[in-house]
Amino acid sequence: AVKAYPDVPRFRYELGRALLAVGKVEDARTAIEEAAKRGHVRAVFELGYLHATGTGTAQDRTQANALYKAASDKGDPYGMTSWGRALFNGYGVRPDTAKGLDLLLKAAAMGHTYAMNDLAAIFTEGRNGVTADPDRAVAFLQAGVQRQDMYSMNLLGRNYLSGQGVDKDPKMALTLFQRAFDLGQPYAPASLGRMYRDGSGVERDLAEAQRLFELGTMRGDQSGAYDRAALEMQKGDKANQAVAARFLAFAAALDLRK
To answer: Do 91 and 64 meet the contact criterion of CB atoms below 8 Å apart?
Structure first.
């Protein structure tokens, strides 16, 4: 499509995304940069993401934020979410909680589920001077679930399991965790695993919990790896120390806070 329509920036952006998916990072970045130069707003956001994550370039939060802001100013909900998140939390920029919250709310109003999930976390916990509002948090998660967002499903499942902002309903939690699991959500296996480990809303089944924690680890879930190690250690004299050590090592390696 790029060869046939070289002046259509969307095709260059889509080429860049395809190249990124197959690991051709340098070629992907070149295509995305060309799309951005030709006015493709989502490509501007994507460049920001590459800088934020250090994909194919040195990690540079300042440059990432400049690109997020540029995309946000042009009305891109992805840009609004990332720039709003940076402002709200002070990621590489002086914090501006009010402006950050406003951008997240605007992105959510445009249907962006990442913004909805961020807002749910903010109103669940009460962050940076924003008062906790569990009902509002649940409303954002429900909106995400309606848009088939697997992260919203997993988060809302936790609310139903704990009874935070909703009536406690383990069966509904199980349903939401399973839906998220089926969609490939990385933390859903461990969410299900804890239900089977604790016998919460299901019959206690440590073998199933173990299987789910291992699957979560393979999906990159640090807490799933830790819970698998803990489950092994709880076997006492029958514990396999090598297995426990391996999953603790996975947990350390998957800790993204480093």
So the answer is: no
List Cβ neighbours of 153 (8 Å cut-off, separation of 6 or more). 144, 145, 176, 177, 179, 180, 183, 185, 188
CA pseudo-torsion sign 22, 27, 33, 36: negative
150: closest CA among 184, 108, 192, 193?
A: 184
Domain 186-258 coded CATH 1.10.260: no
Helices (H), 183-221: 188-198, 206-218
160-169 residue pLDDT tens = 999 999 999 9
Residue labelled with tokens 């070289």: 6
Terminal-to-terminal C-alpha distance of the chain: 41
Report the C-alpha gap between 182 and 174 in whole angstroms.
Answer: 12
Hey, is 195 helix, strand or coil?
helix
Sequence ranges of the domains in the chain: 1-79, 111-185, 186-258
Q: What is the pTM of this model?
A: 0.85
| C-alpha 172 chain-centroid distance | 22
What separation in angstroms does the CA of 36 have from each of 19, 39, 127, 165?
A: 16, 5, 34, 42
